[in-house]
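go over both lines:
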Amino acid sequence: MKKEQICYICNEECEDGIEILGSYICKACEQEMINEDASELKMEYYRSKIKSLWRNNLS
C-alpha cells in the first residue's frame, strides 16, 4: 500500500498519482488534465497550478 499524499491540484488525500517537482498530483487530476479540452476554462486552472509548481521550484 502506498503512502497517502495530498494532491497539489485538488487538495485531496490520494494513494495513486505522480510526483512533479516535489509535489504530488493524484491520478484523478492527472486524468482530467490529460482529457480536458485545451480551450476549456478548467484547463486554465490546471495551467496556473502547474506554472506555480515551476515558480516555487525555481525560487
Observations:
- The chain has a mean pLDDT of 88.
- Residues 12 and 26 are 8 Å apart (CA to CA).
- Residues 5-58 form one domain.
- The chain has one domain: 5-58.
